[in-house]
Amino acid sequence: MLTKILVVDDEASIVKLLQFNLEKAGFQVVTAFDGKQALDMARMEQPDFIILDWMLPKMEGMDVCKTLRQERNNTPILMLTAKDDELDKILGLELGADDYLTKPFSPREVIARVKAILRRTQTTADGTAAPDEVVLQFGEIRIYPEKYEVYRGSEKVELTPKEFELLHYLASHHGRVLTRDQLLNAVWNYDFIGDSRIVDVHVSHLREKLEEDTKNPRYIKTVRGLGYKLEG
């Protein structure tokens, strides 16, 4: 079955360009041209990936992203934005987007980022753990890499794909101090020059979901001037 991508933009030329190139790359594409239609399509079509413009009629892309995350829809979201302000980009990540691209962009870069994210967010075909699956555990937190699932005690923790990837990488290097640049290269898979706050935002999200006291975290420790390490 082809991977289904929902492309949302109010500019028909951009939708047409992305649809042509994504279908040429082997994806199935469905489209929407405003925020409300995007929400309806996301709920009805259940796409595997969403490419979502920031500025949309009827409902802005940020609100679409926020609503989907509130509904516990963790479909990977790549935001498209004409805004080049770092605070706007950070806001998008804080609301649950996994990545962003600033317009103008090349279709090849969009496809490369889509593929990179999908490679790291695929689960096993039937959603069950492989018999030899390695479970990473620290304290009461358990990570099931094959199923992309995380549990805190008996409670399943809902993470976005990027949050999971970051946690998994920290857990795979348990006890080691990892710089923000190392985490950017490992989890985002390309160079985010000057955008190390992306790591800080995702660490903050993980702490909110995993820690009892976010101001005094038990698991994800800040190493001042260097980066982060996972303990427990």
From TrEMBL:
<feature type="DNA-binding region" description="OmpR/PhoB-type">
    <location>
        <begin position="133"/>
        <end position="232"/>
    </location>
</feature>
<dbReference type="InterPro" id="IPR011006">
    <property type="entry name" value="CheY-like_superfamily"/>
</dbReference>
<dbReference type="InterPro" id="IPR001867">
    <property type="entry name" value="OmpR/PhoB-type_DNA-bd"/>
</dbReference>
<dbReference type="InterPro" id="IPR001789">
    <property type="entry name" value="Sig_transdc_resp-reg_receiver"/>
</dbReference>
<dbReference type="GO" id="GO:0006355">
    <property type="term" value="P:regulation of DNA-templated transcription"/>
</dbReference>
<feature type="domain" description="OmpR/PhoB-type">
    <location>
        <begin position="133"/>
        <end position="232"/>
    </location>
</feature>
<dbReference type="GO" id="GO:0005829">
    <property type="term" value="C:cytosol"/>
</dbReference>
<protein>
    <submittedName>
        <fullName>Response regulator transcription factor</fullName>
    </submittedName>
</protein>
<dbReference type="InterPro" id="IPR016032">
    <property type="entry name" value="Sig_transdc_resp-reg_C-effctor"/>
</dbReference>
<dbReference type="GO" id="GO:0000976">
    <property type="term" value="F:transcription cis-regulatory region binding"/>
</dbReference>
<dbReference type="GO" id="GO:0000156">
    <property type="term" value="F:phosphorelay response regulator activity"/>
</dbReference>
<dbReference type="InterPro" id="IPR039420">
    <property type="entry name" value="WalR-like"/>
</dbReference>
<keyword id="KW-0963">Cytoplasm</keyword>
<keyword id="KW-0238">DNA-binding</keyword>
<dbReference type="Pfam" id="PF00072">
    <property type="entry name" value="Response_reg"/>
</dbReference>
<dbReference type="Pfam" id="PF00486">
    <property type="entry name" value="Trans_reg_C"/>
</dbReference>
<dbReference type="GO" id="GO:0032993">
    <property type="term" value="C:protein-DNA complex"/>
</dbReference>
<feature type="domain" description="Response regulatory">
    <location>
        <begin position="4"/>
        <end position="118"/>
    </location>
</feature>
<keyword id="KW-0902">Two-component regulatory system</keyword>
<feature type="modified residue" description="4-aspartylphosphate">
    <location>
        <position position="53"/>
    </location>
</feature>
<keyword id="KW-0597">Phosphoprotein</keyword>
<keyword id="KW-0805">Transcription regulation</keyword>
<dbReference type="InterPro" id="IPR036388">
    <property type="entry name" value="WH-like_DNA-bd_sf"/>
</dbReference>
<keyword id="KW-0804">Transcription</keyword>
